[in-house]
Amino acid sequence: MSENPALDDRLTVVVAAFNEADSLPLLQPRIARALDTVREEHDIDGRVLYVDDGSADATWPVLQALALADPRIALLRLSRNFGKELALTAGLDRVEHGAALILDADGQDPPELIPQFVARWRQGYDDVYGTRLVREGEGWLKRATAHAFYRLIGRLSKTPIPADTGDFRLLSPRALDALRQLRERHRFMKGLFGWVGFNRISLPYHRGPRLAGASKFNFWRLWNLALEGITSFSTAPLRLATYLGLLTACFAFAYGIWVIAKALLWGDPVQGWPTMMAVILFLGGVQLIALGLIGEYLGRLYEESKRRPLYLVDVWQPAPGVCSGQV
Ligand code: UDP
Ligand code: MG
């Protein structure tokens, strides 16, 4: 939040665009109209920040032409294609004052809803996130895998990540400020928004088809995004290795004891086999347990290396006698 509260009453719409030359001219007038409405209804100054994520088509000249026609438009161009998550981070880093609203460049997130997001923000919510009611123009396979992914990550991760929620959302100045403190390199935005917390509310909406062009997220990219989400927001896979190791080691030890007992009781018909088996099973078991242990420490190291703040404060109300209010 800035020192001048008046500057907090601003809204910046951040749009990441990668090869969206055909969609942008259709999208911008809709955003402009939405910002006019926000101005009339809530007396809030609206702007747009387009981030060109290293597009190879005419996106950049198109954006420049749009910016010439409307002084409310700011442009940022990345040196190459860094992917949506980093393009959004770059955009959000440059929002100096007020709230930020994230919107897809392809028109799948209707700009007409912006006034509703702002209304929730003015009611005191910090994180207003759009929840998709329907996904048009997306096959059943994508819908089914997306559904499964949200359920899985919801179970694995301690961070609340609402299901069927994309990046279409509004962040209040303090939520934006908090998000900017998370500087980890592997950025799974949906998880980071969830980590920030504060007052959150869902805004259900109808997700339409793209205005033009094709989705940039094929299955391989989505799979990688899912892996990113799971490994960034949970050390459950590492834990799994620990338990698997322990379980296998238990079986190995039990079987090793059985092999030794059999040799002691009934002799050793294949010379040396029981000894060899016992040594192999013992060493295998010890190695698996050690690997699990290393995994546990690695998990902790990984958590530390993200250097996230330990907590964020929503309200701090000091009382005389308890604490002075000075921190
Ligand atoms: N995008 C981006 N960089 C990329 C890929 C996508 O900035 O490397 C942008 C893209 O221009 C669009 C948004 O991210 O504004 C969502 O992409 P897309 O519509 O392809 O994804 P989908 O809606 O199919 O999940
Ligand atoms: Mg899209």
From TrEMBL:
<dbReference type="GO" id="GO:0005886">
    <property type="term" value="C:plasma membrane"/>
</dbReference>
<dbReference type="InterPro" id="IPR050256">
    <property type="entry name" value="Glycosyltransferase_2"/>
</dbReference>
<dbReference type="GO" id="GO:0016757">
    <property type="term" value="F:glycosyltransferase activity"/>
</dbReference>
<keyword id="KW-0472">Membrane</keyword>
<keyword id="KW-0812">Transmembrane</keyword>
<keyword id="KW-1133">Transmembrane helix</keyword>
<keyword id="KW-0328">Glycosyltransferase</keyword>
<keyword id="KW-1003">Cell membrane</keyword>
<keyword id="KW-0808">Transferase</keyword>
<comment type="similarity">
    <text>Belongs to the glycosyltransferase 2 family. GtrB subfamily.</text>
</comment>
<dbReference type="Pfam" id="PF00535">
    <property type="entry name" value="Glycos_transf_2"/>
</dbReference>
<feature type="domain" description="Glycosyltransferase 2-like">
    <location>
        <begin position="12"/>
        <end position="178"/>
    </location>
</feature>
<protein>
    <submittedName>
        <fullName>Glycosyl transferase family 2</fullName>
    </submittedName>
</protein>
<dbReference type="InterPro" id="IPR001173">
    <property type="entry name" value="Glyco_trans_2-like"/>
</dbReference>
<dbReference type="InterPro" id="IPR029044">
    <property type="entry name" value="Nucleotide-diphossugar_trans"/>
</dbReference>
<feature type="transmembrane region" description="Helical">
    <location>
        <begin position="273"/>
        <end position="298"/>
    </location>
</feature>
<feature type="transmembrane region" description="Helical">
    <location>
        <begin position="240"/>
        <end position="261"/>
    </location>
</feature>
